[in-house]
Write a structure and sequence with these properties.
Anti_sigma_zinc_sf, mainly alpha, Arc Repressor Mutant, subunit A, 65% helix, Znf_put
Length: 74
């Protein structure tokens, strides 16, 4: 579904996370050039991918880390 058929404003989070297909990515970038609302929202969301990576790494580390005597992950 193209950004114009669902509203480009809905693609900000998907764009920030890098999950748009190539056509939607390009269409959103064209929209972004002239939409201050989406530019502002993208700035607000700019840290989300890094935060999600940090949570994922933290969870994977805690699941594979040393075990307590009762054999549960710390």
């Amino acid at each position: 579904m193209s950004p114009s058929s669902r509203g480009a404003h809905e693609d900000v989070a998907a764009y920030a996370l890098g999950v748009l297909d190539e056509a939607d990515h390009q269409a959103f970038e064209r929209h972004l050039m002239s939409c201050e609302e989406c530019q502002a929202e993208l700035r607000e969301l700019s840290e989300v991918p890094g935060l999600l990576d940090a949570v994922r790494k933290d969870r994977s580390t805690s699941l594979t880390g040393p075990l307590d005597d009762d054999r549960t992950p710390r």
